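FORM 7B - TANDEM STRUCTURE REPORT

SECTION 1: FIRST PROTEIN
SEQUENCE AND TOKENS:
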Amino acid sequence: MSAATAPALEKTRQRNFPRHPISVSVDLIALRFGVPENLPGRCTDISEVGVGAVVAGEMAAGQQVAVELRLPNVGVPMRARALVRYQSRFRCGLEFVGLSAEQRSMIRYWAHCAAPRPATVSGIAPAIINPAGVNSASVNDKTAPIEEPVVLAEPVVNRKRRIRIGRRGLLVLIAAVLAVAGLGWWQWQTSWNELERNTAGEGRLRLSPETMDNRIVTKVDPAYPEAARTAGIEGTVVLDAVIAPDGSVKQLRTVSGPNLLVQPATDAVQSWKFEPYLSSGKAVEVDTTIAVEFRLH
């Protein structure tokens, strides 16, 4: 029997969308005590499922943030909601949440414009040569048969088709861009309101189990109930925990687990002690998830 914290929030996923290198400014907005905090950074790569960035600020895996960046050759900024999947030093990986079809099209359009184009050959004039077996003497001889010159065909060149847009088409295009911008702004507001609802009210930071596991100072293993041992019951008890600024466990709420194992897990975790978590140099109250595992063997 052993007690352990929860496994990582996510497993490495196989990428179904290519990542494209990019170097543009990116702004992340995270809620700190219910107040939006802007974290500037630099986007290093992007795909239809997320971005990689270098960010001047600390974030936790599983934390929700708002992302804003502007793609080259795209007239409107891109605003989206994302989850922090990892952060190592200042580098982090963000996974988009609820990315719209229009925003995916923006990424594909930028990637198409940024892709290198093959070089084309142009400006080659057709060459004219004398036919085989005809020399200058025979050409000047009026009695010699005159053959038509051979014209070498000009190499086939891939020419870009030019698209002409009239005034009406231009107005339609502008209206479509404005519509996409308006929709993006509405989705931005909706996503941000949802982010506020998920984090407002408690005034606490939500930290991943991995982050808090590394901050455990005192850890007590739970006692295995004899009734559960006799019945052959084992499993994992998952608890939502509120950690006080001094590192003590302030509040616990059962999420899942066998009934016979919930109370021993709660009693053990209640006595755990964590290293206080600092934000802006001040110890703060945090939310996290703790999993206690019971195994007979």
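SECTION 2: SECOND PROTEIN
SEQUENCE AND TOKENS:
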Amino acid sequence: MLFPAIQPDKTWHFPVSDTHTLYIEESGNPEGVPVVFLHGGPGGSCEPGHRRFFDPEEYRIILFDQRGCGKSKPHASLEQNTTWDLVADLEKIRSYLEVENWVVFGGSWGSTLALIYAQTYPERVQGLILRGIFLSREEDVQWLYQGGAARIFPEAWQHYLEPIPQDERGDMITAYYKRLTSENEIVRMGAAKAWSIWEGTTATLMPDKNVVDHFSDPHIALSIARIESHYFVNHSFLSPGQVLDNAHKLKDVPGFIVHGRYDVICPIDQAFLLNQHWSNSKLKVIDNAGHAVTEKGISDALVTSCNQMLEILS
């Protein structure tokens, strides 16, 4: 069960480059175990409910919106926006907050970023709590955006196809990227909503209007669609198989992996493979869930994992 809702104790905007300023907030116990929350997308944002996975008496809870996301500025910007910029931002935030090392919590794209960060700076990571594993391999991206998931959600897939002419559908990501970077605002926004609604529709095991409505919000849709397509046309700025190839670097980092059995956005084989490659991880499969963090089985397992991480660290 989620912890009761709390308000942030501090919020501020933190410049990380000449272009980008990040929204950051802190809540919970200032003397507690530091935990940083990495939202999904890339292009998503932090929400008030994300504070509720952590015991506020035990954790120092740090949330931030990644470059171009949420309340960070400039909104939906693709300039200086790569995986490695985000890894560097994490180090800037950690150093600024005078945190020696921290627990890293990430879901979906946030799991990718958490893993890349932990592989780059294992000495800075006390533990990992990950949900909806996304390995960012070409096959994982193609599954969702080039027709694999269409076999499970054929009606929603038709809506996703609509903005793209027949002769460009052989490479949906490139076709969408072209429209999402168009000078024409109507073209840009139409593509953003179609892309984002496809993702929101496929996120849960049972249809959830609240999730689809969240993804339909124009502000959220624009950053999700633009930034995701930017990352995916650039292969997430990673080498092929990088996440699994470097999993051995996590041998001293304890971790929990929570994954829905019927996750259509990030099929469960990704979590299974990561667990096989990372000896210090425990995989929790949620049999009645898809991808969304709001699904009860997933949120309950994440709260339990956060509590168990405290036991490990003590």
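SECTION 3: OBSERVATIONS ON SECOND PROTEIN
The chain has two domains: 10-137+237-313, 139-236.
The first strand starts at residue 10 and ends at 15.

SECTION 4: SIGNATURE
Preparer initials: ____
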